[in-house]
Backbone:
């Protein structure tokens, strides 16, 4: 196509899609030394199977190589942060599940820890251990979805079915403890909602005993596979400096050679009592991210086993009757408990004024909840720092100068969840 | 339970309590207010000094910008509080920088020259709070549609939207 005709086409396209100019401005602001003469702009998504949700990418290509890339997000924006301001503190917990629907327990935990920090609540050890146990199971579950969909994007369809088989076992465990498979809302401010059924520990142990052999099975299917190696090795390189500058966290950061994990370096919820390794790699490519996540799953299995071994007995909620709903039996027999129950449900509980930021290591990276209280029963402001949101900014750096087909591979490797990007 | 008396307010008091802390040292000349509450440092700086303050803490080892967000204190003034959460990989510590902006002149310098990762965060604040970041290369809406009116996370914006 002649350059003039192409300019015309872009103009026409832009007139129909007013947003595209801004997005392209973003793409061009970063691209240097490229002329528009030979390039073409293509639209990828929002309805595209390998964008893992409703991510829209505007890709500027020169032949097969990517010269500019901009992401257009917001298709799933539901204003969760605004909704939080209209709810009592305890009513926010179910909203946090919906942010990252692949790791609901991480979101529950991060929010609960933030509010507990505001309140200055001490959480019993048993609740801490159970929180760690279910967080690590969530990490395995989330990584299984990542592996399955990532492999499916590359063309290895079988792995997807195997991953979802194991994920199903985990979802059954979640259902047994929380009554829900995905939107668990299992943790509460001050502890956890219910004691898990006693025979469930047997199921969890059975799962943990078999999981390493399943991971071997996935690795047998993928690690030596020449197509898998060809599509992953050397693709989507991200230097450690770029990773830090662009706000990348979690497995992609560790795959770039930065050895930082909040679980080990700034422990929360009793993680300092557990022994585990933090896998890292210095390659910084898609393959390194694959390796790091596979090793992370094995480490999570170890942490879960330690949590099961050392699970202390005792209460699962803190001793704070004005914040935690009373036991059902007590509520029916004791006036005091009935009053507390009535007050918590109808008018919530006041939280001392102040602001806190609580960070945790979610399966995708560093998640953070910034909660501001003005002393009332509703949060004044809740802000979520979601790992995918920041990691998405690095997409252009990883894709630029590479082939268009590699974009799919790179998107898979950063494991984005659009629910938490758009909130 | 949280004891309000444990809060240390004012930069002089924080300096006295934590004289060896790297962030306290780095911001001695720039912080106009500070507090140490619930084991978190908060430093307030003037809006003209935000880039300088960001560079100062970066030089002191706080290398990773984790989050930027805003709080709307409507109807009190100064209305907007911009909170920057900065993490140090080496010191394993997090600090919060705060800039306060008045409602009729909600404008602050972008720190994109210090940390490029603030790009999306500043766009989000511009979109949802209507705060302008001078020097941002592409300050356009990110969550809401381009033709949206108003800034949804402002406190004077109704939860159910305008009807």
Residues:
């Amino acid at each position: 196509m002649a350059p003039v005709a192409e300019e015309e086409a872009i103009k026409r396209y832009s007139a129909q899609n007013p947003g595209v100019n801004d997005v392209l401005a973003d793409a061009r602001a970063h691209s240097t030394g490229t002329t528009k003469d030979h390039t073409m702009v293509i639209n990828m998504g929002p309805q595209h199977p390998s964008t893992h949700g409703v991510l829209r990418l505007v890709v500027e290509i020169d032949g097969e190589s990517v010269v500019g890339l901009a992401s257009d997000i917001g298709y799933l924006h539901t204003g969760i942060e605004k909704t939080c301001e209209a709810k009592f503190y305890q009513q926010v917990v179910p909203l946090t599940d919906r942010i990252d629907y692949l790791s609901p327990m991480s979101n529950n935990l991060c929010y609960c820890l933030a509010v507990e920090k505001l309140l200055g609540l001490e959480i019993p050890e048993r609740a801490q251990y159970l929180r760690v146990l279910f967080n690590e199971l969530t990490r395995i579950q989330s990584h299984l979805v990542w592996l399955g969909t990532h492999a499916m994007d590359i063309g290895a369809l079988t792995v997807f079915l195997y991953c979802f088989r194991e994920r199903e076992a985990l979802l059954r465990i979640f259902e047994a403890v929380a009554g829900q498979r995905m939107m668990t809302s299992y943790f509460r401010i001050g502890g956890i909602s219910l004691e898990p059924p006693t025979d469930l520990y047997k199921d969890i142990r059975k799962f943990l005993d078999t999981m390493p052999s399943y991971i071997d099975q996935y690795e047998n299917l993928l690690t030596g596979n020449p197509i898998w190696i060809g599509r992953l090795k050397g693709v989507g390189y991200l230097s450690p400096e770029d990773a830090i500058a662009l706000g990348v966290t979690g497995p992609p950061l560790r795959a770039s050679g930065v050895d930082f994990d909040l679980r080990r370096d700034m422990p929360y919820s009793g993680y300092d009592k557990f022994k585990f390794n933090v896998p890292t790699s210095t390659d910084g490519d898609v393959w390194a991210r694959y390796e790091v996540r596979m090793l992370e799953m094995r480490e999570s299995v170890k942490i879960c086993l330690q949590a099961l071994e050392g699970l202390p007995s005792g209460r699962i909620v803190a001793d704070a009757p004005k914040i935690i709903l009373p036991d059902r039996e007590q509520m029916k027999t004791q006036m005091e408990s009935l009053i507390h129950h009535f007050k918590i449900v109808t008018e919530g509980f006041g939280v001392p004024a102040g602001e806190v930021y609580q960070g945790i290591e979610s399966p995708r990276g560093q998640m953070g909840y910034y909660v501001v209280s003005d002393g009332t029963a509703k949060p004044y402001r809740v802000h979520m720092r979601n790992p995918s949101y920041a990691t998405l900014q690095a997409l252009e750096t990883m894709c630029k100068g590479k082939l268009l087909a590699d974009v799919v591979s790179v998107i898979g490797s950063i494991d984005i969840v659009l629910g938490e990007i758009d909130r | 339970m949280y004891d309000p008396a444990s809060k240390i307010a004012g930069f002089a008091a924080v300096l006295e309590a934590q004289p060896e802390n790297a962030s306290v040292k780095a911001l001695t000349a720039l912080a106009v207010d500070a507090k140490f509450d619930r084991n978190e440092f908060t430093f307030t700086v003037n809006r003209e000094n935000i880039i300088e303050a960001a560079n100062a803490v970066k030089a002191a080892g706080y290398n990773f910008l984790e989050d930027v967000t805003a709080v709307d204190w409507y109807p009190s003034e100064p209305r907007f509080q911009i909170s920057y959460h900065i993490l140090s990989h080496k010191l394993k510590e997090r600090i919060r920088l705060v800039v306060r902006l008045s409602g009729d002149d909600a404008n602050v310098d972008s720190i994109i020259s210090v940390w490029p990762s603030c790009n999306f965060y500043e766009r989000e604040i511009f979109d949802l709070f209507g705060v302008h970041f001078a020097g941002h290369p592409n300050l356009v809406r990110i969550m809401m549609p381009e033709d949206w009116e108003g800034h949804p996370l402002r406190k004077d914006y109704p939860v159910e939207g305008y009807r």
Summary: The beta strands of chain B are 8-9, 31-37, 40-45, 64-72, 80-88, 93-101, 107-109, 132-134. The mean pLDDT of chain B is 88. Residues 84 and 145 of chain B are 26 Å apart (CA to CA).
